[in-house]
Amino acid sequence: MSAAPDDRPRWPALTVAFGSAVVLGLLGPVVARAILGDPPPPAAPTDVMAPGEPESPGLGPTVASAVDPSAHAGAGPQGGEGDGPEGRRPSDGPGPEAPGGDSADSWEAEYFPVVPYEPEPRPVTLADLRFGPAPTTPPAPAAMIRIPAGSTRIGDDTLAGSRPSRPFAVPAFEIDATEVTCHDYQSFLVAKGLEGPWVPDEWGASYRWTGTSYPPGAASHPVVLVTHADAEAYCTHVGKRLPTEAEWERAARGDASLRYPWGNEWDSLRTNVVSRRAGPLVDARDFDRFAASFSAAPGALDTRPVGTVAGDVSGFGVHDLAGNVSEWVAGTFGPYPGAPPNDRNAFGRGLRVARGNAWGNRDYSSPIANRYPHEPEHRDVLIGFRCAR
Fold first, then answer.
1. What are the C-alpha distances in Å from 237 to residues 67, 113, 191, 328, 352?
2. Domain map of the chain by residue range?
3. Mean pLDDT across the chain, nearest whole number?
4. pLDDT of 241-252, one tens digit each?
5. Nearest partner of 243 among 85, 59, 25, 16, judged by Cα
6. Are 62 and 330 a contacting pair, CB within 8 Å?
7. What is the number of alpha carbons within 13 Å of residue 65 lying toward its C-beta?
8. What is the second-level CATH architecture of the domain 17-384?
9. Rounded CA Rg of the chain
10. Taking the model in full, what pTM does it have?
């Protein structure tokens, strides 16, 4: 892969799944295409937000899909990216070739600036980061947490695309205490007659479904490889919706507007991020060295059963907001009021947003205010969702 102008490779939300690709000799165009997605199309004039527009689309009510979301749920004939490789089953035959590495490098440099790494508050070793045994039985359906009406400071003045920070009043709402699990998502698929999430590439092999059967041992893990429309369709099916960005951030940061769910200091011992495999990271080069040496057993899951990482819980009692998987939210990726001109090149292109850190994110100490733009049909082993109402 070509390097960024400062000679430091810049991978967005780069995952431990890349490590698997390295082992298989696939850390090339196919992986870049699958993880990063195609660069977005040029912005249509109607997509560009007017200067001084009072509210980012991601902070307002749920944006209705242009088509029935249930028509896109799952990875069946209408799922995935149409004729793109993510939407194809083996019976579909080969898909079109993925773009070259330079295209991927351009995407990452323009749309996913690397967030500076935060120091650990104490010396931490890889041994300190090991998880205990995972539960062996599926959890009960997720409880919902009522978040009272109140004001939380949204955004972060140090993060491109998340500034300026300002107080934001959020009406009362409810949100799932945990991410939607494979066990819960299976019930939706069966009811709708749909097949489960699937990608052809080896980086997603441990997480892809067989028909309506989730991967072995994944019942209590968050469902991944879902598109934004898949997530919307599930929430609608259970009488809920995706949270707005403001709701999600309030649930994570609370009345005190904390930088992380537990406080204002980064602490990798509290959540499921890439340090669980790599050890604490100092900078992006540390991640590059880790990715080049990573190996994982076939069938291994780096997600964790939802709600089992005791330190990753907000003051409201909402789990797994700073790690495990990033989560689709409602709305599109637009600038906050008063944002610097052209703060993020992805603004105004109709991209959807994922919020929260994930188990293989290159920005492994990313604060809660960070926003990740993706094409609506993007599938990733790092992205799941939870519902609100």
1. 16, 35, 9, 16, 20
2. 17-384
3. 76
4. 999 999 999 999
5. 59
6. yes
7. 19
8. Alpha-Beta Complex (3.90)
9. 19
10. 0.76
